[in-house]
Design brief:
Chain lengths: ~425, ~270
């Protein structure tokens, strides 16, 4: 087969913001009245509110390729999948698909809570495009994969959400199209089931089928896809080798705040004991981070400040929070035995503290500076007046073949196991 | 190898009935689902399917037959009314369920492709069950009154088909219109309530003054209801004007299909 499995040529999709969804009978009647009388000259107001979800997107995918699609929220990933799945029509351009397509934009589409597990397998299967015969043939496999054998004649509304998702994914996983379009369906279920799903997806792609896979999970994309498309503001920014594309994507985007310099706007930080001048998160060359880091990379926190009056009870350090605001830990220069404390001298002081690698999970983190005279006085108090840094971790969770996704829980330490 | 081409269909307006046929299994599955869900978890279950039309029948027959004392000739009023209900019950069921069907299925519409016409179509098929039940009641009444159906019964399939087409015509229009204008969710019950009295269900159309008859038969179901009853209980054959309503129905049906197809393209965007 010389022709491509999917050929996308100059596809654009425009949404009329504000106009979409505001169809009501009154405004239509009023508008058509105005149009008849000519008093509304179809103002440009419409065009100012255009939103190009996709703009001149072109690429082609060969048979048997597994392609990842990444990009920030709003980059057009979902719209692209919807166009490819025939759900929404492009404004211009053309897509040619050679082969039977199935798309999986959600697990459990059409599941009805009142129906039993068995009935829902048939229902969902035929919605996804399987014939009853196919479903009957695969029924046992689907049931075994989902692990809900005992509850087949129970209405799915009595299922736990985990069981529900497992059953739904099991049906989808047994589709056998030539081309499969998948949207982030792996972000469901517990960690164990996610692994099972990923394994199943690897099988699918191993069978020479063409797969388009949208995900925020860089590890999963890296694991499954040979090539990756990076979408940015509705356009294809990059299309190439997965490792390279992901690397460049992570370097450019993400919410980083890697350096704080005291410009004197907050006088609550002015004090004679330790007036902070700089707070930064740095890489191994001590340069402020300019990208997301992977979990096995060494990064350090730098705290600089001026001392006019020495006080032996000075403690300095930082607090680490998740972006959702949960405090993970404090780390102070005075955590160790007193002999190991770094000296505090009059004048300029600069401290560096390396963060543990392979410790946090994937995600964004906030770091706030802690300065105090131990049990006497706050100088820089987290969530009150402390300088703030932000960084995020993507990937590098471990080199184990089992952890391609974010790990469950807040932390992701790697602890060695030995046989005793 | 299947080839699919996706591009804007700005000026092409085709019904693509072949595709509809390829998706027939989905149609049956959705029909089965609706049927199962309707009576699942109710104490009386399927009995409701009989209780509802029975109540309508008794009330209509009481109001028009006993209170208003409408003359139905030699036919017992209960029988006469039920014959009228045959056409109406189906139309009403399809209008009310198909009308909101797309909105009810928006989760599916936004996430997966299939010909959207399947959704209102499955409602029309589910509603056939209701029609079947009215017929069963009919048969029971006939045995009770020892009523022999007239020879006009042979025309019944034609009028049933018209009932199907009129129900679908209304259902398809309303389902497409409701997507754009949610107002129709409120308009439909209103129309159906008016229609219930504006349609000759429990009284003969001959009661309507001659000068209003033309207007009267503009009602798309008037001719259908008259026709079905004529087949079952006999009497005078439908007024020539009844055929006006058949033409209205046919035109509405075809236009409805095209309007639905037009809206189908943007359905997922405006839902």
């Amino acid at each position: 087969m010389s022709e491509a499995a999917i050929q996308v040529e100059g596809v654009s999709k425009v949404f009329q913001l504000g106009v979409v969804g505001s169809y009501d009978l009154r405004s239509t009647l009023v508008n058509s009245f105005h149009r008849i009388t000519g008093s509304l000259s179809r103002t440009n107001g419409h065009h100012e509110q255009e939103f190009w979800a996709l703009k001149d997107v072109s690429f082609s995918v060969d048979h048997g390729q597994v392609i990842g699609i990444i990009g920030r929220n709003g980059a057009g990933k979902s719209t692209l999948l919807k166009v490819l799945s025939h759900i929404t029509e492009p404004t211009s351009g053309r897509v040619t698909i050679n082969g039977r397509v199935a798309s999986l934009l959600e697990v459990g589409t059409g599941f009805h809570p009142e129906l039993t597990g068995k009935e829902n397998i048939y229902l969902n299967g035929s919605i996804l495009g399987m014939s009853r015969k196919e479903i009957r043939k695969k029924f046992d496999e689907i049931v075994a994969f989902s692990g809900v054998e005992k509850f087949l004649s129970t209405p799915v509304k009595r299922y736990s959400s985990g069981m529900y998702v497992r059953l739904a994914f099991a049906v989808a996983a047994h589709l056998e199209p030539e081309i499969l379009v998948i949207d982030e369906v792996l972000a469901v279920g517990d960690a164990e089931f996610q692994q099972k799903c990923l394994g199943k997806m690897k099988d699918v792609s191993g069978q020479g089928r063409t797969v388009l896979f949208v995900s925020h999970q860089m590890n999963a994309v890296r694991e499954l896809c040979e090539k990756t498309i990076l979408l940015h503001q509705g356009q294809v920014k990059e299309y190439g080798n997965t490792i390279d594309v992901i690397k460049r994507y992570l370097n450019k985007e993400g919410n980083l705040l890697s350096e704080w310099v005291n410009e004197g706007e907050d006088d609550s930080l002015d004090n004679p004991f330790f007036r902070p001048t700089r707070f930064a998160i740095v890489d191994t060359s001590l340069a402020p981070l300019e990208r997301e880091i992977s979990n096995d990379e060494r990064v350090g926190i730098i705290i600089e400040g001026t001392v006019e009056k020495a006080d032996s009870s000075l403690t300095l350090g930082f607090a680490v929070y998740t972006l959702e605001g949960q405090l993970l830990y404090w780390s102070l220069q005075a955590d160790q035995e007193k002999e190991k404390w770094p000296a505090v001298n009059l004048g300029e002081n600069k401290y560096l503290c390396w963060l543990p690698t392979n410790f946090l999970n994937e995600g964004g983190y906030r770091i706030e500076m802690i300065l105090s005279l131990h049990y006497k006085e706050w100088l820089s108090r987290p969530e009150v007046n402390a300088p703030v840094l932000q960084f995020s971790i993507r990937g590098g969770l471990s080199s184990s073949p089992y952890w391609m996704l974010a790990r469950p829980g807040l932390l992701g330490p790697i602890l060695p196991f030995e046989k005793i | 190898m299947n080839q699919t081409i996706i591009e804007p269909r700005k000026h092409k307006l085709t019904l693509n009935l072949g595709e509809l046929y390829r998706y027939r299994e989905l149609l049956w599955t959705l029909t089965y689902r609706d049927y199962r869900v309707k009576y699942a978890q109710t104490f009386l279950g399927f009995a409701w399917a009989i209780i509802n039309p029975l109540f309508t029948l008794v009330i209509l027959s009481f109001v028009f037959g006993t209170v208003a004392n409408v003359d139905t000739g030699s036919v017992p009023h209960l029988l006469y009314t039920n014959a009228g209900l045959c056409g109406w019950a189906y139309f009403q069921a399809v209008m009310s369920t198909a009308g909101t069907s797309i909105i009810g299925a928006q989760g599916m519409v936004k996430k997966i492709y299939f010909p959207r016409l399947i959704i209102p179509l499955s409602k029309a098929i589910t509603a056939l069950i209701d029609l079947g039940i009215v017929f069963i009641i009919m048969a029971v009444l006939m045995v009770y009154y020892q009523f022999t159906p007239p020879t006009s019964l042979v025309y019944l399939p034609f009028f049933i088909l018209m009932a199907l087409v009129s129900g679908l015509a209304g259902g398809i229009w309303i389902s497409a219109l409701t997507i754009r204008y949610r107002d129709f969710q409120h308009i439909v019950p209103l129309l159906l309530r008016v229609g219930m009295y504006a349609t000759p269900i429990a009284f003969p159309a001959s009661l309507v003054p001659e000068k209003y008859l033309f207007l009267y038969y503009m009602n798309p179901v008037a001719g259908v209801v008259e026709g079905v009853r004529w087949c079952i209980v006999g009497g005078t054959s439908p007024h020539p004007y009844a055929y006006i309503s058949f033409v209205v129905v046919a035109v509405m049906f075809v236009l409805g299909l095209f309007y639905f197809k037009k809206i189908e393209r943007v359905m997922a965007d405006i839902l």
